[in-house]
């Protein structure tokens, strides 16, 4: 019983619960901005009004690397670094470094924010709930965490790739040909990266949802 009480949590658990809860709340801001502002204002106003807050929230995810490197979480370090870096490339390497890129005012920036925000709200909410009480995580949240990636990962990665592709000319004009070639090299890594993340999540899904007993316990 004591393990479900706040005073029973270890210091790393308290830190992770706080971090995941805050992160879920922050990504909720991105989600509501995306839904309401993209529908009411559209582009380019949506990008102008949201890109800075989205960038700040995404940069907060560098904490994921720290958590993985220190063993606070079991996520593979290489997988974590790959995922965080690919997103920082978008928000810092395109949205901020290339503010005039046609990618920023394209619909792919909207689908990007939508895919990212839904993924992260579910992921962080699941982690926070699981850390508080592993036996009381709502089944719908567990199912969403280990099922919706089938759609959200491809839409997110395709949006990222489209953002990079549309920014190649602007990268060469503003920064130089070396940066443009760097972005081209990054494009080549996206599909293998998606395969790596996809297969990892499929394995995790089998572990979590592949046992009928766990389903009965949560019903």
UniProtKB/TrEMBL annotation:
Q: What keywords does the record list, in alphabetical order?
A: Endoplasmic reticulum, Fatty acid biosynthesis, Fatty acid metabolism, Lipid biosynthesis, Lipid metabolism, Lyase, Membrane, Transmembrane, Transmembrane helix
* InterPro entries associated with the record: Tyr_Pase-like_PTPLA
Q: In which pathway does it act?
A: Lipid metabolism; fatty acid biosynthesis
Its transmembrane ranges are: 24-42, 147-166, 178-198
User: Which GO BP annotation is one of this protein's?
Assistant: sphingolipid biosynthetic process
Q: Which reaction does it catalyse?
A: a very-long-chain (3R)-3-hydroxyacyl-CoA = a very-long-chain (2E)-enoyl-CoA + H2O
GO cellular component entries:
endoplasmic reticulum membrane
Answer whether the UniProt record assigns the keyword Metal-binding to this protein: no
Protein's cellular compartments: Endoplasmic reticulum membrane; Membrane
GO MF, one term, reads: very-long-chain (3R)-3-hydroxyacyl-CoA dehydratase activity
Which Pfam family is one of those matched by this entry?
PTPLA
Any idea what job this protein has? Catalyzes the third of the four reactions of the long-chain fatty acids elongation cycle. This endoplasmic reticulum-bound enzymatic process, allows the addition of two carbons to the chain of long- and very long-chain fatty acids/VLCFAs per cycle. This enzyme catalyzes the dehydration of the 3-hydroxyacyl-CoA intermediate into trans-2,3-enoyl-CoA, within each cycle of fatty acid elongation. Thereby, it participates to the production of VLCFAs of different chain lengths that are involved in multiple biological processes as precursors of membrane lipids and lipid mediators.
Q: Which named protein is this? A: Very-long-chain (3R)-3-hydroxyacyl-CoA dehydratase
């Amino acid at each position: 019983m004591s393990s479900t009480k706040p005073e029973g949590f270890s210091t790393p658990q308290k830190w992770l619960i706080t971090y995941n809860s805050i992160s879920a709340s922050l990504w909720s801001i991105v989600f509501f901005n995306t839904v309401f502002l993209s529908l009411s204002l559209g582009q380019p106003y949506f990008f102008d009004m949201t890109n800075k807050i989205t960038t700040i929230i995404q940069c907060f995810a560098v904490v994921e690397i720290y958590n993985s490197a220190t063993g606070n979480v079991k996520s593979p370090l290489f997988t974590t670094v790959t995922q965080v870096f690919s997103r920082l490339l978008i928000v810092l390497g395109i949205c901020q470094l290339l503010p005039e890129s046609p990618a920023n005012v394209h619909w792919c920036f909207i689908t990007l924010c939508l895919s990212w925000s839904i993924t992260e709200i579910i992921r962080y909410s699941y982690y926070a709930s699981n850390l508080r009480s592993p036996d009381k995580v709502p089944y719908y949240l567990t199912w969403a965490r280990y099922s919706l990636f089938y759609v959200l990962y491809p839409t997110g990665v395709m949006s990222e790739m489209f953002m990079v592709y549309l920014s190649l000319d602007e990268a060469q004009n503003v920064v130089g040909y070396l940066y443009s070639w760097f972005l081209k090299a990054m494009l080549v890594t996206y599909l293998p990266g998606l395969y790596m993340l996809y297969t990892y999540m499929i394995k995790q899904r089998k572990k979590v949802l592949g046992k009928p007993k766990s389903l009965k316990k949560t019903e």
